[in-house]
Amino acid sequence: MRAANEALIVIDVQNDFCPGGALAVADGDAIIPEINALMDDFSTVVLTQDWHPAGHSSFATSHTGKTPFDMIDMPYGPQVLWPDHCIQGSTGAEFHKDLRLEPAHLIIRKGMNPTIDSYSAFFENDKATSTGLVGYLKDLAVSDVTLVGLATDFCVHFSAIDAATQGFNVTLRETACRGIDMDGSLGAALQAMRNAGVTIA
Question: What is the mean pLDDT of the chain?
Fold first, then answer.
């Protein structure tokens, strides 16, 4: 068992991000056995869940003439337009059936604001609206976080950067993540995480 000041954060291991899902990450389900085993090593385990209302502003279908993976400018900055995914209450939004849920101490649902996307476990994409996770971890005297899940270059990446910015010691367990790698986004994300002080393990 790791020290009590260490937490495991499992990002978005949901049906829509796994093979067959609306926004599938290649081999996204292959990381589940490693994540399940890791959970036993940590006294604090947090799961995140993308949880969008129908018609979310990050969906390409919400913008006339746009197609998935187009870029637009939102009030909070550039936004990739995604296929409709992880809609609240849908099968796609559910955690993958093989992911262990019983070790989780907290589930953070994100992306619920219809006008702001939310990649990070810590803040929405406006970088101002908190999910409450920072306070939760600090109340538990957690100083070190290990991140795993989907996708390396988006939700995991943003979560890792925000965790480092908030003063946590951050480790990315690369073998327990998978990326989308859209136009070189995976390499850029890994470099950005290293630049922020994240340990890539």
Answer: 97
